[in-house]
Specification:
Elements (H helix, E strand, L loop, with lengths): L16 E4 L10 H8 L6 E6 H17 L4 E6 L8 H14 L9 E4 L1 H13 L7 E4 L2 H5 L6 E6 L2 E8 L4 E4 L9 H18 L1 H16 L5 H18 L19 H7 L6 H18 L5 H13 L12 H14 L6 E6 L2 E5 L4 H28 L1
Helix pairs in contact: 3-4, 6-7, 6-8, 6-10, 7-8, 7-11, 9-10, 9-12, 10-11, 10-13
Bound molecules: nicotinamide-adenine-dinucleotide.
The site of nicotinamide-adenine-dinucleotide has 30 residues, from helix 2, helix 4, helix 5, strand 6 and helix 6.
Length: 387
């Protein structure tokens, strides 16, 4: 008996914009109102806001929406990694359903850190099988990284981003002024992703961080150097993603710092923030690269000192657990189709990939990293004693 066979083949055009928009909530800046009203069919806009942001900027946001006469409903979501759950996704979907958001009009807006943006991104990709939305990042990490991302996701059963989708929103509005209220630790956390970007592809960005890290963190990237660091990080990320948006090529330099850290971060979710775990992974990978004859000793020291200058840790006991590191790499390899594809820094500003890193090399790199951490700690204690 003969059987028929049909194939459907089509192409998906994807284009999305990341637009710098200073003073987003100023009454004389119509950008956000234009975005909210341009696709209006007279429905209610769902405006989803990180609760911490709502506390700080809620009154200004309400005044702005009133001034521009935007019918809206505010939904507050919780930030922080432990809140990146399907529960919050379903909360967003319920609210979209209640306000009656249409398929392609009256699109919602998400304002918050990476957790809220990832949660809303996933909800928007599921509701009515996918609706557009606008995102407004409010932390340093979300400004330089999530703002560019095509991915959404939530954590599931102890794994980071185990449930997610590829669905970039058409527009992201970037206003670095939101950073002025972000805690110093969260600024350093965002510094972790900028640090990564400098290491893999932008020596000038690394120099900005190396020469001015403490000042950048102290003034929350509000200086001209801070603005330049943010711009370079965003541009670098776009450059890396542009030709590999769907991650068909599993050798991704932007995965630097993201090979061992995901599982360590999840196991120590109360202690480690994402950017901190990334910075630790960057340093572990720098020691692995050093063992392979890429980075010299001085360069590894510069990398560690730059992390310290940004207020990032250079050691955490999670990285002493070689079994956990191997388990993390095994999980990462499943994500990279069975290959290590481990990005390492060849020289500051240039990355390469390794595929044959052994457990012994990892244990040795972790040991060196620990010794450096102990050395830095004793120096700090000594300086404290001498003071
Ligand atoms: N989609 C992607 O490709 C992608 C890329 C990078 C990171 N991420 C995700 O981003 C998340 C981390 O994002 P994050 O670091 O922004 O964390 P976060 O969203 O948890 O925000 C950190 C904290 O800052 C608070 N906050 C937010 N904006 C503030 C402001 N302006 N002032 C004061 N407080 C504010 C939040 O309430 C939260 O307590 C991770 O889950 C990570 O997986 C996703």
């Amino acid at each position: 008996m003969s059987t028929d066979r049909w194939t459907i083949s089509t192409q998906l055009d994807v284009s999305y914009e990341i637009r710098e928009t200073p003073s987003l909530l100023d009454l004389d800046n119509p950008t956000l109102a234009d975005v909210l009203t341009s696709d209006s069919q007279g429905g209610t806009k769902l405006v989803i806001v990180d609760r911490a942001v709502a506390r700080l900027y809620g009154a200004r946001l309400e005044r702005y929406l009133k001034e521009y006469d935007v019918p809206h409903r505010l939904l507050e979501l919780l930030g922080d990694e432990g809140r990146k759950t399907m529960g919050q996704v379903l909360q967003v979907i319920s609210a979209l359903n209640e306000v009656g958001t249409l398929r392609a009009s009256d699109a919602p807006v998400a304002i918050g850190g990476g957790v809220v943006l990832d949660v809303v991104g996933l909800a928007a990709s599921l509701y009515r099988r996918g609706i557009p939305h606008t995102r407004v990042p409010t932390t340093l990490l979300s400004l330089v990284d999530v703002s560019v991302a095509a991915k959404t996701g939530v954590n599931f059963q102890g794994f980071r981003n185990r449930i997610g989708s590829y669905s970039p929103p058409p527009l992201t509005l970037v206003d670095p002024a939101f950073l002025s209220t972000v805690s110093t630790r969260q600024i350093s956390n965002g510094g972790g992703e900028i640090f990564k970007m400098g290491l893999i592809k932008d020596p000038a960005l690394f120099a900005l961080l190396e020469n001015g890290g403490p000042a950048l963190v102290a003034n929350k990237f509000q200086s001209p150097e801070g603005a330049e660091a943010i711009r370079r990080a965003i541009a670098g990320m776009i450059d890396e993603l542009r030709n590999n948006l769907w991650e068909k090529d599993l050798r991704r330099a932007v995965d630097y710092g993201h090979s061992f850290s995901p599982l360590v971060e999840m196991r120590h979710v109360q202690q480690l923030l994402h950017g901190e775990a990334v910075a630790l992974d960057c340093l572990l990978s720098a020691f692995i690269a050093h063992g392979r004859g890429y980075l010299n000793h001085h360069e590894v020291d510069r990398i560690a000192a730059t992390a310290t200058g940004l207020g990032l840790p250079t050691w955490h006991p999670g990285f002493a657990d070689t079994d956990l590191l191997m388990q993390a790499l095994a999980d990462t390899m499943r994500h990279r189709n069975g290959n290590q594809n481990l990005p390492v820094v060849e020289s500051i500003g240039r990355a390469t990939f390794l595929n044959d890193v052994s457990a012994e090399e990892i244990a040795d790199a972790a040991h060196r990293m620990k010794r450096l951490g102990e050395h830095q700690e004793s120096e700090l204690v000594q300086r404290g004693t001498n003071r």
